[in-house]
Design brief:
Layout: E1 2-3, E2 13-17, E3 30-32, E4 37-41, E5 48-52, E6 58-61, E7 79-84, E8 89-93, E9 98-102, E10 109-114, E11 122-125, E12 130-135, E13 140-145, E14 150-151, E15 156-157, E16 162-168, E17 173-178, E18 183-188, E19 193-198, E20 207-213, E21 218-223, E22 226-231, E23 237-243, E24 252-254, E25 259-264, E26 269-275, E27 281-288, E28 294-298, E29 304-308, E30 313-317
Parallel strand pairs: 1-23
Antiparallel strand pairs: 2-30, 3-4, 4-5, 5-6, 7-8, 8-9, 9-10, 11-12, 12-13, 13-14, 13-15, 16-17, 17-18, 18-19, 20-21, 21-22, 22-23, 24-25, 25-26, 26-27, 28-29, 29-30
């Protein structure tokens, strides 16, 4: 069950510098597959940087408010999360607690929606045509109908601090972690209630990001020192565990090849693991990144973009050979 490195495949890297830094505070990146772009909320710079996958060219969308971080020594807060919705790309901003829409082709700014609490991650929930934002300060999921232009009157209350997200659009299920409880929960998006709770076993640091293989019903949970595979078809039992250095936050998954991407900031390494049919995890390649670089996001070719906030750049890693 515990993954080990089968052979020392070391992947090469390139970098894309981002304007306004270093540092460039980054958290939840997103890929717009249809327009072949990576959206990078660039926190303290007051930008969202849009990267063209084919050329590496960066277009900075500026004008986002920033605010001092409540954590001493941290860069200012600003745009921090992105999700690609139905005809729009949405950006969440921790500085002013707003979600703002952008045209995915022209990058033109559209309407913004004010929330009552600071958004962490945001996700487009296609079955209900809603935006779901994790709002951990009040232990809720804030649900927004974009056509109404405001949040639902009642947020979905949870028993812990929500962290990370994954959406199974076909089954109408939203997954998030309760970071302070070391639990992962499944929420029926139509009924708006928790329908299952799983124990990933991440320990006192708790679980962080999530990734999903809906076809095989595998849910991947990031721990701060690796990742865990849960078999959703069998009550969320643990089928695989990947051990890395510390400093893991968000993760991503490339379903066509069953590859899980886990960036550990503790030792500056991206680990690529293969998820077997039974959910076992096997590390197959690594790439050097940078200290505290984390939050990999993967495009349609399996190329990973790792957020190096201290260096003010993205570290680009091509996928391992088949």
């Amino acid at each position: 069950m515990l993954a080990t490195l089968a052979f020392a495949t070391i992947l090469g890297t390139t970098t894309i510098a981002l304007p306004g830094g270093p540092p460039v505070g980054m958290d939840y990146l997103a890929v717009d597959a249809a327009n072949r772009r990576v959206w990078v909320p660039a926190g303290n710079t007051g930008n969202v940087d849009v990267v063209d996958i084919a050329t590496g060219k960066v277009i900075a969308i500026g004008g986002f408010p920033t605010a001092p971080s409540p954590r001493p020594g941290r860069p200012n807060m600003g745009p921090s999360s992105v999700t690609v919705g139905d005809g729009a790309v949405w950006v969440g901003n921790r500085a002013d607690d707003r979600l703002c829409a952008f045209d995915p082709r022209t990058l033109e700014r559209r309407a913004c929606i004010q929330l009552a609490a600071m958004p962490d991650g945001i996700a487009w929930v296609a079955p209900t045509h809603e935006l779901w934002a994790t709002t951990p300060r009040d232990r809720t999921i804030t649900i927004v109908d974009p056509t109404a232009g405001k949040p639902s009157p009642a947020a979905l209350k949870l028993d812990g601090d929500p962290e990370g997200y994954a959406v199974d659009a076909a089954r109408g299920v939203f997954y998030t972690n309760l970071e302070d409880k070391d639990r992962t929960v499944a929420i029926d998006v139509r009924a708006r209630k928790v329908v299952a709770t799983f124990a990933p076993g991440c320990g006192k640091e708790g679980p962080r990001g999530l990734a999903l293989d809906p076809a095989r019903r595998l849910l991947f949970v990031a721990c701060t020192d690796g990742a865990v595979a849960l078999d959703l078809a069998h009550q969320g039992r643990v089928t695989g565990r990947l051990k890395t250095a510390a400093g893991v936050d968000n993760i991503d998954y490339f379903a066509p090849r069953g590859l899980l991407y886990v960036a550990a900031g503790g030792d500056g390494t991206l680990t690529v693991a293969h998820a077997a049919k039974d959910g076992a995890l096997q590390a197959i390649a690594t790439a050097p990144t940078a200290t505290r670089a984390r939050n990999a996001v993967v495009d349609g070719s399996g190329t990973a973009y790792v957020a190096d906030s201290i260096g003010g750049r993205l570290i680009v890693v091509k996928p391992p050979a088949p």
